[in-house]
């Protein structure tokens, strides 16, 4: 392999041959396709139990034209994604990432999560599973935000479930790192159904971290209602009109789906609150369908009280570790 490859910057290899042939990988099946990319499951020819997920991004001229990118621009975006992923180390962020540029495509190789994405589990959601997956997603997003990294495309399809039944955030193709002295950008977000209201109305500048928060709220809405998002001008109103949502989830839906970014919770606030939540303390606020802005900016923690129920453990499927 060393003879066929030249090391490029940011830990990306450039190959003159096919990545799968050089790495002795066999494609088992196509997991998903979209636009100019394809995600496949591959296994080692020498050991079929060693599996990898590989995202192939075409460098063919017609595909680059569809994306309105030059080959140089596409490679720069690929380098940025690999560079970001290689700096991350968290149990709820996809790991084992390697990047390769071949003559006709780029390949991003990563760990295999055997239990699919949250789309696979949507119809089987219980409060215990929602609690588990939401907690993991919040932990992962809070981690990247602490490093000033914006994901930019949080959605059900980009959240995998690994062998330990943990939510794992992947696909950082739209991610970027915000400079320390910058708070707003011109645009943020990729998938229409998860875009925050300020992006949809094309405000000149948005807070991309609050856009990520809104997308996490849409994911929680999907888990609670057990259905994918459609076009909805006001997810928060949809939630308020839906009965039988437990107090904790309703609290976080209210906090994350607020149409005004200034009233929307940060991921740091959500993580702080998750394990210390007392439903009774917020009943009056929720009944008024409004949230005080200053609460989300406060560093004070609610009274400590774990609310993890026995259901959270009992409802998990029996997956071998």
What does this structure look like?
The protein has 321 residues and is α+β, with helices and mostly antiparallel strands. The chain folds into two domains: 5-110, 2-Layer Sandwich (Phosphorylase Kinase, domain 1), CATH 3.30.200; 118-312, Transferase(Phosphotransferase), domain 1 (Orthogonal Bundle). It contains 13 helices and eleven strands. It has helices at 19-22, 61-66, 71-86, 118-121, 127-146, 197-200, 208-225, 235-240, 247-256, 267-274, 283-287, 293-297, 310-314, and strands at residues 5-7, 12-15, 25-34, 37-44, 51-58, 98-101, 105-110, 149-150, 159-161, 167-169, 176-177. The chain has a seven-stranded mixed beta sheet. Strands 8-11 form a two-stranded antiparallel ribbon. It has a two-stranded antiparallel sheet with strand order 9-10. A hairpin with a 6-residue loop joins strand 4 (37-44) and strand 5 (51-58). It is globular, with a radius of gyration of 21 Å.
Fraction of residues in β-strands: 15-25%
Q: Would you state the CATH class of the largest domain?
A: Mainly Alpha
- How far apart lie the N and C ends? 33 Å
The number of helical elements comes to 13
What is the annotated CATH architecture of the largest domain?
Answer: Orthogonal Bundle
- What is the third-level CATH name, the topology of the largest domain? Transferase(Phosphotransferase), domain 1
The overall pLDDT, averaged over residues, is: 84
Q: Provide the spatial order of strands within the biggest beta sheet.
A: 1-2-6-7-5-4-3
- Per CATH, the superfamily of the largest domain is Transferase(Phosphotransferase) domain 1
Give the biggest beta sheet: 7 strands, mixed
Supply the helix-strand structural class. alpha+beta
Low-confidence segments, ≥5 residues, pLDDT <50?
A: 1-8, 287-321
Helix and strand sequence: EEHEEEHHEEHHEEEEHHHHHHHH
Task: Tell the overall outline.
Answer: globular
Alpha carbon gyration radius:
21 Å
Percent in helix: 25-40%
Number of domains: 2
């Amino acid at each position: 392999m060393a003879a066929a490859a030249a090391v490029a910057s940011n830990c990306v290899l450039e190959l003159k041959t096919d990545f799968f042939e050089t790495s002795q990988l066999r494609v088992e099946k196509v997991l998903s396709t979209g636009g100019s990319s394809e995600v496949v499951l591959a296994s080692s020819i020498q050991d079929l139990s060693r599996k990898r997920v590989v995202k192939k991004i075409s460098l063919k001229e017609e595909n680059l034209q569809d994306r309105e990118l030059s080959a140089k621009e596409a490679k720069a975006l690929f380098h940025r994604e690999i560079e970001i992923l290689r700096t991350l180390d968290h149990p709820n962020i996809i790991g084992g990432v390697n990047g390769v540029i071949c003559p006709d495509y780029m390949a991003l190789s990563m760990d295999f999560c055997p239990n699919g994405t949250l789309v696979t589990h949507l119809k089987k959601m219980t409060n215990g599973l929602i609690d588990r997956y939401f907690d993991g997603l919040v932990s992962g997003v809070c981690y990247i935000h602490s490093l000033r990294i914006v994901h930019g495309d949080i959605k059900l399809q980009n959240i995998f479930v690994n062998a330990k039944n943990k939510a794992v955030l992947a696909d950082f193709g739209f991610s970027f790192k915000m400079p320390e002295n910058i708070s707003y950008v011109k645009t943020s977000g990729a998938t229409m159904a998860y875009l925050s209201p300020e992006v949809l109305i094309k405000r000149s500048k948005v807070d991309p971290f609050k856009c990520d928060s809104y997308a996490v709220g849409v994911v929680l809405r999907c888990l609670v209602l057990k259905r994918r998002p459609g076009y909805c001008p006001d997810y928060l109103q949809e939630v308020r009109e839906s009965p039988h949502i437990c107090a904790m989830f309703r609290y976080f839906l209210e906090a994350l789906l607020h149409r005004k970014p200034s009233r929307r919770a940060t991921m740091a606030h959500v993580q702080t609150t998750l394990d210390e939540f007392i439903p009774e303390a917020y009943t009056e606020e929720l009944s008024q369908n409004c949230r005080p802005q200053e609460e989300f900016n406060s560093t004070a923690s609610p009274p400590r009280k774990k609310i993890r129920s026995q259901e959270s453990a009992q409802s998990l499927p029996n997956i071998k570790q």
